[in-house]
Design a protein that fits this description.
alpha+beta, Thrombin, subunit H, 3 domains, 7-stranded antiparallel sheet, 6-stranded antiparallel β-barrel
């Protein structure tokens, strides 16, 4: 059957409409997919940027944590060091104020010995853990046998190592392991500084007397201006014993007193003790090389 003209127009219009709708849909879908693709790329860029920023911040946080850890470790070391310094200063302050020297005395006495020969006695102090002892040479004069009596009343035969006559220093050795006492720097002494002397005055073993440094660099009978003047009580038997500062260090070796006066004791400064021991050691070395 042949279509009427108006039927053809209707069909043609409908077909055009359908084609137009399809075309519009196609354009819409294209734009939609293009927009979705653009949004996806934008989102991926934002995610990548966020990841980069997050990683950067994580790195910064990590570095900050490590720096804080180092700072805390350094702070811990500083606190420990400060605590040690405060404890040391507190001990010195207590000793300086005579609150008292008891802690220092307790530690120091373990390093002090009575030196006894067959003709007399004096005092000495241990300067090395393997038993080397310093005393005055005049304490040993005339003696044939030397014994050292420790603070726990153990009597040990002492070997004579050598002496330096001018400085009146002698070096002995006993067998065993001991707690030595440190030699301080006599150049750091101050007039008026508190000190203690440990010795065996008139046979009274391990007696302690307290005083101050009255003067420094006094000249002795040997012509050396290396003696500390102290008002700490010194008597026969104190010779060779240590003069100890508020740090528990030996700043001098008690040597002599002026009998006509009161509280006029003298100790050879620790720098000369070291010099005397070194001279004795060199003498022994030279003998060994001969």
């Amino acid at each position: 059957m042949q279509l009427e003209k108006h039927h053809k127009i209707i069909i043609g219009s409908f077909s055009s409409f359908v084609i137009l709708v399809l075309l519009v849909n196609s354009i819409f879908l294209y734009v939609l997919f293009a927009k979705l693709d653009l949004n996806q790329k934008t989102l991926e860029n934002e995610i990548n940027s966020l990841q980069t920023d997050t990683q950067t911040k994580l790195n910064e946080v990590t570095i900050g944590i490590l720096e804080n850890k180092d700072s805390l470790l350094n702070l811990g070391v500083s606190v420990n060091t400060l605590d040690e310094e405060l404890n040391e200063e507190l001990s010195e302050l207590k000793a300086s104020a005579s609150a008292d020297f008891s802690g220092i005395i307790e530690d120091s006495i373990a390093s002090v010995v009575t030196i006894r020969t067959d003709v007399g006695q004096g005092t000495g102090f241990i300067i090395t853990s393997d038993g080397y002892i310093v005393t005055n040479a005049h304490v040993l004069v005339g003696g044939n046998h030397i014994n050292a009596i420790t603070s726990n009343q153990q009597t040990i035969s002492a070997e004579f190592i050598g002496y330096q006559d001018t400085l009146d220093i002698a070096l002995l050795k006993i067998e065993g392991t001991y707690s030595p006492i440190d030699l301080g720097n006599s150049n750091d002494m101050e007039i008026g500084e508190k000190v203690i002397a440990i010795g065996n005055p008139l046979g009274l073993q391990f007696s302690v007397s307290e005083g101050i440094i009255s003067a420094i660099n006094r000249e002795g009978a040997n012509g050396i201006s290396g003696y500390i003047q102290t008002d700490a009580a010194l008597n026969p038997g104190n010779s060779g014993g240590p003069l100890i500062n508020k740090k528990g260090e030996v700043v001098g070796i008690n040597n002599f007193k002026i009998g006509e006066g009161e509280s006029l004791g003298f100790a050879l400064e620790s720098s000369y003790i070291i010099e005397g021991v070194n001279i004795i050691s060199e003498q022994l070395l030279n003998k060994a090389l001969l």
